[in-house]
Amino acid sequence: MSDQKKDLFYKEVEGRMESLKRRPVEKEKTTRSEKINVTFNVVIGLVILLGVIFTLFRVLGGS
Known about the structure:
The chain crosses the membrane at residues 38-60. Keywords: Membrane, Transmembrane, Transmembrane helix. The chain is rod-shaped. It contains 2 helices and no strands. By secondary structure, it is mostly helical.
């Protein structure tokens, strides 16, 4: 009886674990909100960078 239980346990749990190990890792799709968030962060970064550059030009060239 215990051998049968071990066999069932292996088929149900260990067998699934082996099949999961063999399967390649699936990439998660980026959602629309994540794309908007990345775009927003890039735009904000560029605006800040442009502001710093223009401020430097005013300080250095506007004597």
